[in-house]
Amino acid sequence: MHITLIAGARPNFMKIAPIIHAVKRVQKMGYSIEYRLVHTGQHYDHNMSQTFFEELDIPRPDVNLGCGGGTQAEQTANIMVEFEKDLMANPSDLVMVVGDVTSTMACSIVAKKLNTKVAHVEAGIRSWDVSMPEEINRMVTDVLADYYFTTSETANENLRRLGVKEEQIHFVGNVMIDTLLKNIERFKKPAFYDSLRLNAGGYLVLTLHRPANVDEAEKLKATMKEILHNVDGLPVIFPIHPRTARVIEGLGIQSNNLHIVDPLGYLEFNYLVKHSKAVITDSGGITEETTVMGIPCLTLRDNTERPETVTLGTNELVGTDPAAIKPMLNRLFAGLWKKGTIPGLWDGKAAERIVRILVASM
Hints:
alpha/beta; Rossmann fold; 2 domains; six-stranded parallel sheet; 16 helices
């Protein structure tokens, strides 16, 4: 079996790493399974992409399609055009896509039009909010896939309602957590940690990038004010996303406890999270990592495609109204935050299950 693995943006790299390692293990056992790694180039900033290949021991991609930048439509079109050329030149038995970025959807469409099977890792998750580009990517990919590898029973049920056959749905766990657990002892202290005099449990981590939070300058300013004024004076470390940096530049936000830093690599960012008091974010993947590490997480969104991080984990939905932030932070500082548990099969073995299923289907 020959598999084409697709990576395009930051979250993808953490998801493909354990799959590559699992493939290599079964190769040593004598199974005839090969992979080709295609990087679409959707994220082209070094700290948003290339550093992940180095830190997570992922081989250099066989090709980088160089499709970064542009509008949603331009990027989708560019990826489709370039990936079609690559797949026609390098036929495959299966194209494996992960997550819900533009590359996930674009490469799925190309594969099916070339009569190539598609496997979707992290299939079936839904926010039910089609204003999010990621939701559209998930919906389109899940209509096209042949193999559905899921992280939760909720995702399984979403796929059943879509009409996916039971034998196509494989509840395997969470490959993001495979990477987290494999590397947790390798997390490394960021260079600024000591210079800012940070201490375990003595600071918060902030990440923001979704349009609902960062595209309206006054709303972003109000959000930042609510956070900075209600964290009991603790430092707030803000590894800033490039799109957020462009917006925040002109807001004139100044506070002694705000520290804006460049995007961090995987090992440094998760060191920061693991030793924090709490994380404030609008990311989905981070809510999974905080759940496993037992770190309180405040999600500035009205919905989540990962409900198990709320029902079982340490995550709470705050919403996008800045006024809702203070009561949640009050609860955190009063010591009333829930402890949370770890969802089923988030045990570091999801990629092994995926590859085992593929080998059995050969």
